[in-house]
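User: Here's a protein and a ligand (iron/sulfur cluster). What would the complex look like?
Assistant: Let me lay out the input and then the predicted complex.
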Amino acid sequence: MRGRPRDGSGAGTHHEEGVEPVAPLDLPKLLLRHRRDPTRLLQLLREVQAAEGWISPAAITELARGLALPRARVEGVATFYAFLSTAQPSGPYRVLFADNVIERFAGGPELRARLCAKLGDAAAQRVGTTSCIGLSDQPPSLLVNGRAVPRLTAERIDTLAALVAQRTPLDQWPAELFQIDEPIHRAGLLLGARLGPGAALRAALARSASGMLHELQLSKLRGRGGAGFSTHDKWRAARDAPGPTRFIVCNADEGEPGTFKDRTLLRRQLDAVLDGMTIAAHAVGAQRGFIYLRGEYLFVAPAIEHALADRRAMHLLGRDVLGRTGFDFDVEVHLGAGAYVCGEESALLESLEGRRGIPRNRPPYPVTHGYLQRPTVVNNVETFACVAHVALLGGERFAEVGTPVSTGTRVHSVSGDCERPGLYELPMGGTVRELLELCGAGAEVQAVQVGGPSGALLAPREFERRLCFEDVPTAGAFMVFGAHRDLLEVAANFTRFFAHESCGFCTPCRAGTAQLQRAVDALASGKGTRRDVRLALRLCALLRDASHCGLGATAGRPFAQLHEKFKPTLERRLSSLEFRPSFDLDEALAPAREVTGRDDPHAHLGET
Ligand code: SF4
């Protein structure tokens, strides 16, 4: 459940932004800077966390008073997000190793053990794990006080341990430690061309708002977030919704483990994304836009702020954009704080309004009742980049690439057992095998996970399938697992991920993911029985049918697909017994042995 650290090491998780806890913040000043606006609550909490290393009870009280909110509301938000902590930190650094399965297979756990051994017991208490941090192309990786460190090796860990031991301030650490590469191995429309600021926007304005909507219709562009909803239909619905106020939201919260393409698009193709957002504003009549950036991509935020300032100076944002009287539009960056569920658009809107990221009931949909219950277009980073190219090329030319149902290209984040992890942009409809050959996966591929843990697990017999909405839809992640990998460990890791990220709002997901995790963990550790398999399958069906949102509905997919497609792998790991004791008595006696200082064979059951 949200708010629990992955390693169970304490009530909170970690502070961020790379500074040691400093003297108490000037909260009244901070509140004024945020206009005492309750929708800024999460941003305020992030700033308090960054400055003080935690959210103290006094800070919660003062924020509640300053924003005229119930104290419980502020505390509820402070305890919801994994990157906020209401526990006083025991030291200046918090290190979190990325724990998705790609990072684990790359040696993350061994390097974590090495770091803990070097730091000693006290400091090691501040070393934990977190979900994927968007660096599966350069694993293993970690966050130290919220700053990403990729490509870990034993040598880099030793350097890091020395810096921590010497209490070197983070801003004095070697810059090379934080260097994030952007490996692009196959570029197409989106990754190949670098658009100048405003180029696509000018093309769109020349077409008029309704003309641009027409081009969008001709392009048959579908949202790249995974569901594949028609971008034209979404924009048209927002434009036709009643009321004068509309919003544009760019979902840059790519939290699906194994995905990192938005990171590159934001760093290399930012003007295309911002042009796409501004084109959307013009087409639907919106005045304000937000980029909801995942907290793990904090390092991308300064460049975005810089680009926004440049665009204001170039009249690409602000009042009367490009001299169009009455076309007022601006964009602000809103940082997330480590909640995967906020990738779901209605949860994202809740978060944007300064609340806990709990998915809303739908309908009504965001196109009519979005941010502050006003019509809102929510698209992801890649979709807005596509929009810029639709404006430049025209809808028909855009639709020439791909398949009749899935037009354009798709950027795949490739990771795992291959020679060249990184980004590959292919026309929609490229096959799984084609991508495997491009990335140098070799002949010994056991399985591919497309679209992250909530996506599809594909066996070799399915490698001719096509990556597009009508066959294998994908949100962009492509994880390769060689013959030597343990697919049960993969399923267990994904199941743990969902159990951890469940927001806890509805019982089937809150309780179901936890129970499923126990059953799959037992099977992965070789202690499971057929009873566990049957229980797990029942839970998968329950989650699929009774969950409130997509997170719960897809949480059982990793195990269900493993059972369906890799049954012999599962069977081989079963304990032959139908019955498994519900607890290990000898293990339960461990605290008593510790208290009495006895650990000889006579103090263990079954060893005398
Ligand atoms: Fe939260 Fe329910 Fe969605 Fe799970 S299914 S993330 S508990 S709303």
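Summary: The radius of gyration is 25 Å.
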